[in-house]
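User: quick one, fold this
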Amino acid sequence: MVIPLVTGFWLFLLFFFRVLQAQTGVYSALSYSSRKTAAIASEMESPVATLCTAEIFFREKLAEQETACKYIEGGMWGISLLTSDCSGEFIDLKVFYRVKFPIGFFQIKGITIYQESKSKKWTGQPAEQDEQEAYVYVTEYGEVYHSSKECNYLDLSIRTAKAAQIGGLRNRDDHKYYPCELCAEEIAGMEDVYITSYGASYHSSLSCGGLKRSIYVKRLSDVGFRHPCSKCASGNGETSFREEK
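Assistant:
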């Protein structure tokens, strides 16, 4: 009596890990395909074409999950996306599949699993934009906000310069360069440094956070401590050359 119980316990444990491995692999591919399809959805001609594109992404990613697929009845093609919907403002991918039992058990072949991943279609504009409130552009380390993403302060144009000559160089607004507050300790003794066309700082490394321009769109009421960029937001014609590093 003990042997069948122990055997049953190990089979149940094995099946549990099979289900977990299949779910993890499928969800990884599902999430990847919904996000990637959402990014290019505006270029699709119809919901059918969008869904077909999403399925291609899903199958390609799932092909990398060989271990997970071998536990699914029918393999990769045993997963159905027929109930998915791409007609609205979301890429809503839904899949059904069956995970096989390690051995036959009272004529039960396995269990059916349902998973879903939903991503909002990207259109290039802020979601649910309030017409009465302005949206502006900010950077991670910048102390200002910009009314235009074409502002010169958002254009890096990185180039190298000799550290010994940095005191005589000027940016395009005719202002001097100062040591970057983030990497100033590493600049001492360096032969070459990095500068930008409109920035007011010089840097020791291309990996310095002051040289990154991850641009975010925010509501004007959410910019916090940031003040208007004198070049594109305030319109007063004066250049605050310490605004962006």
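User: anything notable?
Assistant: Residues 15-120 form one domain.
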